[in-house]
């Protein structure tokens, strides 16, 4: 029996297709972390191999370009952070900082691999969601580039 204080992954974003039991099992593979306002979740240029799911709160993704901090976007409840480095581990291309008190759920690549091997059906839905997130973000960048060159 779970207590009321036990965090649970909500049926939002990439987790929406998963049933309650699948989300409960998945939550046990990762960890829930509180993030204070101004705290970096990810730092540009540092190794990063985790997927973060925003349970609550808001983050800004920024990158240093030409000596200036550029806001790349906002990430909110139900969205994910770190999808690319989860699939292709490397250094982070941006910093992600909490704008307000937030809670995230984190899973690293090795642990995700264990989950995939043990729960392939649920993991397939999770990975489809990760792929869709990457696709949506890539399309948004392509539209910004096209708009920039057509202006």
Automatic annotation (TrEMBL):
<feature type="domain" description="Cyclic nucleotide-binding">
    <location>
        <begin position="14"/>
        <end position="116"/>
    </location>
</feature>
<dbReference type="Pfam" id="PF00027">
    <property type="entry name" value="cNMP_binding"/>
</dbReference>
<dbReference type="InterPro" id="IPR000595">
    <property type="entry name" value="cNMP-bd_dom"/>
</dbReference>
<dbReference type="InterPro" id="IPR050397">
    <property type="entry name" value="Env_Response_Regulators"/>
</dbReference>
<protein>
    <submittedName>
        <fullName>CRP-like cAMP-binding protein</fullName>
    </submittedName>
</protein>
<dbReference type="InterPro" id="IPR014710">
    <property type="entry name" value="RmlC-like_jellyroll"/>
</dbReference>
<dbReference type="GO" id="GO:0005829">
    <property type="term" value="C:cytosol"/>
</dbReference>
<dbReference type="InterPro" id="IPR018490">
    <property type="entry name" value="cNMP-bd_dom_sf"/>
</dbReference>
<dbReference type="GO" id="GO:0003700">
    <property type="term" value="F:DNA-binding transcription factor activity"/>
</dbReference>
């Amino acid at each position: 029996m779970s207590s009321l204080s036990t965090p649970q992954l909500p049926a939002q974003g990439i987790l929406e297709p998963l049933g309650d039991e699948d989300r409960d099992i998945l939550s046990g593979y990762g960890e829930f972390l509180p993030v204070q306002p101004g705290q970096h979740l990810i730092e540009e240029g540092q190794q990063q191999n985790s997927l973060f799911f925003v349970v609550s709160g808001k983050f800004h993704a920024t990158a240093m370009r030409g000596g200036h901090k550029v806001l790349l976007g906002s990430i909110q409840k139900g969205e994910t952070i770190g999808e690319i480095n989860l699939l292709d581990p490397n250094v982070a291309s941006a910093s992600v900082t909490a704008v307000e008190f937030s809670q995230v759920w984190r899973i690293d690549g090795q642990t995700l691999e264990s989950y995939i091997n043990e729960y392939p059906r649920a993991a397939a839905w999770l990975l489809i969601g990760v792929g869709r997130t990457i696709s949506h973000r890539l399309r948004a960048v392509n539209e910004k580039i096209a708009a920039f060159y057509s202006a």
